[in-house]
Amino acid sequence: MNRVLLVLALSVATLPARAEGLEASLSDWGAVGLLQTPTARGMPDGAVTAGLTALGGLHRHIFTGAQLLPGLEVTFRDSTYPSWHGLSEPGVDAKLRLLREGPWWPALAVGGRDVTGSGLDLPGKGRFAGEYLVASRRWWNVDLSLGIGWGGLGDYGHVRNPLRFLGGRFKRDRDPAKASSRGPEAWFTGERVALFGGVEWHTPLEGLSIKLEYSADSFRAQQQDDPNFQPGLPLNAGLAYRPWRWLEVGAGVEQGSRAMLRLAARFDPQQDVETTPPTPPPAVGARPASPDAALPAPDITALARLHRLPARSALIDGDRAALWLDPAGTGTAPLAQEVGRATRLLADGAPPEVEWLTVVTGGAGLDGTAVTLSRRAVEQAASKRGSPDEIWRTARIDRSAGPPPDWASRLALTVTPSAEASLFEQSAPLVQRTYGDTVLTVEPLRGLVLSGGLRVNISHNLHLLDTNAIPAAEPVRSDLPRYADRLAAVERLYAAWLAAPSEGWNTRLSVGHFEEMFGGVGGEALYRPLTARWALGLDLNRVWKRPPDDALRLAPESGRNTGHVSLYWETPGAATTGVLRLGRYLGGDWGGTVELMRAFDGGLRLSGHVTWTEGPEGAQSRYGGRLEQGIALSIPFSPGGSWPPDGRLAAAVRTLGRDAGQRLRQPLPLYDALVAAGYGRLTGSWPRLMD
């Protein structure tokens, strides 16, 4: 076996990369890999998976995962196994790519299983925890991988831990029966480590690959539970097949005698979301012969709405014409495409003396950007004699174009079917809740938002939540089953006033029922310079619990203060935003949240978050833990803009019914209202201006 690993090592190090476009398949654990072992490969950016794996009578894995960043893959998993206490083992697995594959070097990644170490400290609960460093090298249709594993990934202990010079736990035995064998404090510890590796051959049959691997997992914890347990051979063989783009089937024989079957659904936002404009862009003809032949401002606004643009007002003043779009950038079209179509309408219908066209983008009555373009440059680009790059040379970007002459009221109906699931329970492998929200939003004046929503509960099995075992005296969200038992209830009913008191500053004041569990009063301030890729926000709220048996009442004895300081950082184009929040949560616990938000063409949104707090006093079930985490996916299924009803399909895998780390679900955060219409999204989608 050592000779086999040596051959793999030499191959990984020396063979030149020759094959491109071969998509990696999933492992038994739900992450990209071979069978039991990981590789340095990842999914396409933004891809999401969900499925289950059965390995003989030994393991059952229910999993969901996402490629949150091009180099970061996160998988949530709940695993069952033969044990005397009958509990499942939830876990969070992560992989970070350190190095892309090059002409003469392999791809390199570091990662781990059960990286958070959450859950009860029962014997053997660290059985799946382990870390690894793995390299992958592709040669034609063959992908070779070789890695070194710690913890459960290195049970065979071929060599001593290369980190033993750090002393302490890096030189001691890592016993899976002990709680110290998992979690951040156990990362890369243990007296010995082991090598693993394998090969995946992408066959000539499209979608079919064959896998062979050597695994260094000796199932040590299972042997501790059952002295008669036989781990079998460390060699595994199997195949993965994708009959359709959205489905992957896996099968194999592992440890020499155990059959494996895996079924997974896959979703790739860059392939499975329609990004082609549903209608052709407005035509730009010759300028009107006289001012009388041009369209007046109200007609331009009405025409823009017919083209599915969220037009609220228009202005013609001398050599300048302006059109206000609000909410801009929230539909399926990129922001620059909306701006381009608005400028086409202005160029086609404005009086002949107009030379400058301004489109103001915003949200909830707040201005995001005001982009002013040369009419002549737009006319040339529309007739294929120019380009967005040439238009940019004479463009001017401002925060605002001044107050609009009028402001049309807006009525929006949003329908959101939602499914939430938890893979973080130890009493059940899967807990779910399904419901539908119908929200009516009215904006009678600029900056004034009135909104009401009805939630219809469809199904749930929330009685299986771990937090039901020992109910909290003062629950925050651990009484979620009582809210889900209702057939229908008012989910939100609030009013908000938004304003821009000075350059770069935006504020919001809200009052009412913000979500199904809490209502009260809240305020928020956001500082966001026009061209900056960062923003700083502060929100403060005084809220009360809404009793589940009376949807419109606030329990007077349940008042609490909550608020956070939030730092936002955007990548160029603002398609990805990282958020760091620090503050006080609904249970009175202090802590922080790290959040990642992604936006893709077609209006798809993907996000992930993790929260750690000190744990609330008096409101924490001992089974709840202090970690709150989740992945959410939102897909539009209607054009959006000013054409109701707007609709989105929402799905999330997250902790449900917890008391620690619970933020108020504010329905109108300032950053969310402005980022879609901001400078980053405009410049990031600028090549789509004339689409």
UniProtKB/TrEMBL annotation:
Write the signal peptide boundaries. 1-19
| Membrane-spanning residues | none
- Spans annotated as Disordered: 269-295
Question: What segments bear the compositional bias annotation Low complexity?
Answer: 286-295
Q: Which Pfam families match?
A: YjbH
User: What are the alphabetically sorted keywords of the record?
Assistant: Signal
> Which named protein is this?
YjbH domain-containing protein
